[in-house]
What we know:
The protein has a single domain, classed as Oxidized Rhodanese, domain 1 (3-Layer(aba) Sandwich), CATH 3.40.250.10. The chain has helices spanning 9-18, 30-35, 65-75, 93-104; strands at residues 5-7, 23-26, 38-39, 49-50, 54-55, 60-61, 84-87, 109-112, 139-140. It has 142 residues and is an alpha/beta fold. The chain has a 5-stranded parallel β-sheet. Strands 3-9 form a two-stranded antiparallel sheet. Strands 5-6 form a two-stranded antiparallel sheet. The chain is built from 4 helices and 9 strands. 27% of the residues lie in helices and 18% in strands.
Amino acid sequence: MSYAGDKSCKETWHALETDGNAVLVDVRTTREWEIIGVPDLSPIGKEALFVEWQMFPAMDINPDFAGAVDTQLKAMGRDRDTPVYCLCRSGVRSKSAAAALTALGYSQAYNIDSGFEGIPDENGERARINGWQHDGLPWKKG
């Protein structure tokens, strides 16, 4: 898979904060947004885009993912050189999403390597080792 690279949650926050064009795309499922929560970009005057990479409940790949992101970014006045940061639960699905955007022609599609909740600890609990929530970045219930 080819994409621009992996970024940590804190690196992503910094990029979103300092680059007015940078965009966060949350690629998790509607169920995850509702139950677990979503990044809150309001402190930096931004809003995340929400486009499922895999569609709940069947978890089939969303065949319209790249096109939907492309359409939303164009509506925002952004082009395919826009820095786009893809976020999922743990950094796995977002790699595929970043690769799909790269294949569409995006030059700066990044994967957020630890995701919203991070990897599970030895007890299977998330947000204890890494991830958006663990790093204390703003979030809210969906």
